[in-house]
Amino acid sequence: MQLNKSIYKDYLEYPERILQFGEGNFLRAFVDWIVDKMNKELDFNTGVLVVGPLNNDKVYELNDQSGLYTLLIKGIENRKLINESTIINSITRAINTYRDYDEYLKAAESPEMRFIISNTTEAGIVYDNKDKLEDRPQNSFPGKLTAFLYHRYKSFNGDLSKGLIILPCELIDKNGEKLKDIIIKLSQQWKLESGFIDWINNANVFYNTLVDRIVPGYPTETADEIEKELGYRDKFLVEGEYFHLWVIEGPKELAKEFPAHKIGLNVLFVDDLTLYRTRKVRILNGLHTIMVPVSYLYNIDTVKDSINDEVIGGYIRSALYDEIVPTLDLPQDELNEFAAAVIDRFRNPYIKHFLISISLNSMSKFETRVLPSILEYNKRKGELPRKLLFSLAALIRFYKGERNGEKINLSDSPDYLQMFSKLWENCDGTDEYYKYMVEIVLGLEELWKMDLNKIDGLKVLVSRYLINIEKKGIEEAIREIL
Ligand SMILES: NC(=O)c1ccc[n+]([C@@H]2O[C@H](COP(=O)([O-])OP(=O)(O)OC[C@H]3O[C@@H](n4cnc5c(N)ncnc54)[C@H](O)[C@@H]3O)[C@@H](O)[C@H]2O)c1
Ligand SMILES: O=P(O)(O)OC[C@@H](O)[C@@H](O)[C@H](O)[C@H](O)CO
């Protein structure tokens, strides 16, 4: 028996007030859960129309379940075990702009539509100069959104009261501002009337936001068992931790229209989210990114096992407290509290967060999430952060794509994968070759926005670590830096 409205007796239909780009695990475990909670506890009376941004049919499977799915929240909060399973009823239906473009534009004509929410990964908020207004659909997410907003503007003759609140959740700096800039750029490129750009500026509000909740996603290993217990099949099961934080930067009136804080949800309306973002990205995401290659090569597969292991756990804690925390400008108590909470979240005994899923696009993640700590540490202390750089050496080894004779399922941009494949293919095992390989990687200026070879001592250190990992093995190599 599949989950759908025929078996869910509390099913309710809500007016579509949110257009959501993306059907992914994170949005379902975070935004749609928040909306569901507000509907149930505050009479928020809001349905979410999901738009699949990619050209695939995955989104339609949500319709087979009447938009319903089960969220499994697991963890420890205030020393209490939380193990909740909730059927989320906020999604009304899902469409795909590649097949349902007319439906998509029709949603722009609805007077009830009020919010745009998105999470299209770091690859989503990009300017594509090939996009055109006439395309059905435009290739990029901002292109699709510009067409949607223009259609709304035209349908309501520029009525200022029909503007929208735009809340992007992509994990990029100034997500709202960037999205708005691209929309304005496309509007100019498409030669849309200046009245439209005025409407964008005066009737719509683009917020910068920062999201935080660990969502490992579909519980592959335990799904059968869970479904047996629930008594129905659910293709959209999603597992996440209890902790959640949504920091929203911009005009505070939003709190009235989106009063999540009133039911105890951790949604903050702030003037500036920079410090929240830096703290979260450098500590939580930074630790995830450094632990992936080191711990995976050490034969560990999950975050929890990494933090609980004596050697790897020690390595992670040392990187955190000795090399990341000292580079952040926040009150020490606050930093220590946040750092300790992150370690606790990693230790969540009820969640299996696989390192391999975090490894996706590790090269660009290293640049945004780890490199700033390396540079800041070097600037402040006049020396190099050894643990963080060890991770870079491990990352180069990770991209050899092999652990104990087995293939590693690497997932990154084809350019990097090809580069590493060639480099490792030609490796003759000499120290000179490893140094050469490190030099090539450190010289990827488009990625690092600088030539890392120019930083005193960095190439020597990373080469030494890589040679140690290759010749002595990861365990001995780590012990040498602890
Ligand atoms: N999973 C987490 O713990 C978590 C927590 C906070 C933030 N995030 C952020 O959310 C993003 C998605 O994570 P997820 O766990 O939902 O992954 P997912 O694989 O379940 O979903 C990916 C989503 O992005 C969309 N997408 C992918 N590539 C795109 C592109 N090029 N253009 C437009 N849309 C695209 C897909 O349609 C899908 O909705 C990540 O990039 C991450 O930074 C994830
Ligand atoms: O989702 P990604 O691939 O951008 O990064 C992997 C994790 O670091 C990330 O999902 C964290 O779990 C999340 O950012 C916590 O809020």
TrEMBL record:
Q: Please tell me the species this chain comes from.
A: Serpentinicella alkaliphila
Q: Which domain of life is it from?
A: Bacteria
Where is it found, in Gene Ontology cellular component terms? cytosol
* Entry protein name: Tagaturonate reductase
Question: Where do the Mannitol dehydrogenase C-terminal domain residues begin and end?
Answer: 272-457
- Gene Ontology BP terms: D-galacturonate catabolic process; mannitol catabolic process
Q: Which UniProt keywords apply?
A: NAD, Oxidoreductase
**Which reaction is recorded as catalysed by this protein?**
D-mannitol 1-phosphate + NAD(+) = beta-D-fructose 6-phosphate + NADH + H(+)
Q: Does the keyword rRNA-binding apply?
A: no
What GO molecular-function term can you cite, just one?
Answer: tagaturonate reductase activity
Keyword Oxidoreductase on this protein?
A: yes
A matching Pfam family: Mannitol_dh
The chain positions of domain Mannitol dehydrogenase N-terminal read 16-257
